[in-house]
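Suppose you are handed a protein chain with no further information: no name, no annotation, nothing but its sequence. What can you learn? This example shows the usual starting point.
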Amino acid sequence: IGALLPRDHVASMTTTVAAPADKVWAVLTDVADYPGWRSDLQKVEVLSQPPNALSWREVSKQGAMTLAVETFEPPRRMVARITDQDQPFGGAWEYVVTADSMDASRTHVTITERGWVSNPIFRFVSRFMMGHYSTLDGFLRALSRKFGAEVVPTRV
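A reasonable first move is to predict its three-dimensional structure. Written in structure tokens, the prediction is:
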């Protein structure tokens, strides 16, 4: 079944965070602090910082994954790509931060994953067991908890 599934996928989720856009942007771009609010991470190693492109390695129970920012448009948009060449998956996450036009204490955050899974077995697991949205959902829930609120992100 995995061999019949497409290699590439796009998944997008959004939520509203109970914090001003500048504070949300600061949290999203402070990758060194990710383990402080993302329970799925054991640690983050920052590899480079501005003025060079921001890059980091996330370490979790599943192993390590290296990411590098390829688009940085403060305080609204960031795209980070997995740079590891030896993984059976890859792709990029686009983070879009938009201040709520009616309430400056709220911010809309949308994350879009443009990914691929090369191995047909992992493709099956990714699609039917884990789901392409599970990591996005967990990230957005953790981000909202960082600001003291529970949310249910929605698919875009």
